[in-house]
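User: I'm new to structure prediction. If I give you an amino acid sequence, what do you actually give back? Let's try with this one:
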Amino acid sequence: MDLFEHSYQQQVKAEAPLADRMRPRTLDEFVGQDHIIGAGRLLRRAIIADQLSSLIFFGPPGTGKTTLARIIAQTTRAHFIAINAVLAGVKDIREAIATATNQGKYHQQKTILFVDEVHRFNKSQQDALLPWVENGTIILIGATTENPYFEVNKALVSRSRLFQLKPLTTEDLAQVIQQALTNCDRGYGKFNVQIEPEALKHLTNVANGDARSLLNAIELAVETTQPNDDGKILINLAVAEESIQQRAVLYDKEGDAHFDTISAFIKSVRGSDPDAALYWLAKMVYAGEDPRFILRRLLILASEDIGLADPNAVTIVNSCAQAFDRVGMPEGRYPLAQATLYLATAAKSNSIMGFFDALAAVEQEQQSDIPNHLKDANRDKKGLGHGANYIYPHAYRDHWVEQQYLPSSLRGRVFYQPSDMGQEAEIKTQVARRREAQLAAQIEGIGTSSIEMLTYGEPDQQSDLWLQRTVSQVGKQLGETRDRLFASAQLQRHDLLLDLNAKTGLLTWEALRQVPEGGVYACVRSHTEAEALQEQAAILPELLRPIVLTTNLSELPALLAQQASDLCFDCIMGRNVLMSEPDKVVVLKNLIPWLSTDGRFILAETVPRYTQRLYDLLQPAWLNSKLLAKLKTAEEAIYDNPSDPMINWDSVDLQEDLEQAGLTVKVEQERSQTDLLITTQLLERWFAPKRKSYPRSPYRGHLEKTLTTGEIETVQRVFTKYLRHQTVTWSSMIAYLTVNSPVK
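Assistant: Good question. You get back a string of structure tokens that encode the predicted 3D arrangement of the chain. For your 744 residues, that looks like this:
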């Protein structure tokens, strides 16, 4: 660079707009987007550790996409190349690849290629990047205002980690203004600028989350306002209003705003909220959306979400669409609003979705034959008997008669489920009665069928099938518990989560899927459990693995403080965490400081006090009444031990204790039932002698406190005789706890 070029560069830098001069240079200067670069978040850890993989930043203008890329350029040890997709072509890409190849070959240095407005590259240009991203020659960082899932090559997206930047909050924008007015080198720190509260509120509101728009307004306000006699540049509301004009509505008829807004509109109509429906309708009309597109979506909704609850809905919307075509805009907004309000206030039913259940059945039952009496009788009635025994409904009262219409393989299958809404409520009763009559017709004559006899002998192939069924039901039950916990948590992709009992990984792996841009901490009790979890996580990239903490719950807060004292979890989750803890309230209270302001505990706890009693599996005739009474007394004593932390509580007690400790808690109990196969091995475990290596007594050990050895052997013989190889219904109680973080 010669002297003239250097002088020119210095002049450009000095005369650059305020928004460019105030661009943050470090993560500490960066404002907002805590959901992706806050403490403990994946992106922050990757930047600090200089372990970046290919990234794509997407979000509205002025939220920091390019700024983050420049911060990475100043932080990383990699060679950094920046191009703009609006100006660059394949030639620029080839030059960048050549530079990256030389850097790796001669300097053993990675290269980061930053492509601003990456969605502006056409398909061939994006394809030119793909092999070099694939083989690691370059680490791609793309920035775009569009949804990369639609606007960027799918192969590039699949090889990149996506981070969505959100519009800045008013608090973030106020901090941006503060930086601009106090920075002496790049901002207006050398000036005496004062902004009135009303002016500040107006600027941060109308900027609509866009820091660049805000800084441009500040620059215009300061540069065009003369100092008063005291040397102050006073920015009042009038100056602020002149500096930043009407709020722009973010709406691109081919981008995210288009799809997100129509989605919000349809969901508001489906949710029967006429106010929200009119708001989203107004936003679309204001932004220039095609009203015919809106009417087409309403016509679909009239069948999909209303259907027979209000059969007139389709007719009315279709009439409104025809009226719009006749009158056009702007008067066409009246029938458009009428159609919206009619559907938003109409009774709702999605029973028409039964059609898609029928489609699925057709796919699975392709060989189902048409019942003979339903076949066409005009051609083959004499030769094949087609149509024989068909009953003509019009010959009967109400023009209906009991008759099988489904194929035999689907007999009794239900596809249509009428709702209780609107006119469909009347249809529901009629359909139910006819189904009951059809069922009676189908099972008529069953008494003459042969009855399959069950045996109580040694397990055969059928018993093995029952065992597999039992195992699968347990898995299903765990899956339902997991799904319920995560449904309550309502996690965001950038959240931090702590799994308090990660021994099985049931919650940990699901958390990793749901918070790919945040982080997961997994607490286990032993080094063996930690090693098992880490071995399973070894297949994941290092930055994407859970952070495993090996400790008990009482020592967990201290370990967290050692890891990172500024951690704040959005959710602390666990299954059967508190069951054996002596002081359950203290455990939760000690972890409360590690929750974010709106964070919460989500726990599922099996309540042992209400578990299945073994004596309930016996019939009274199997034991004499005296021995059965002693057995009940002995078994109930197991669940009446005030010194046993696993037994001496229930969800009501726990809720009262937590509320007395000042916590807000919601408890829901759910009785769970599953099939259990009583195997020989299970009976042997129940009636085995106590082992020194296992702290808790088996079932036999508890019975020995009340029953004699002979009585225990009698009970064991009864269990073996009547229950071995039998499948019983096993009942348990699960308490779901939600503990909200107190206001800090």
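You can read the tokens as a compact description of the fold. Here is one thing that stands out. Confidence is low (pLDDT under 50) at residues 439-474.
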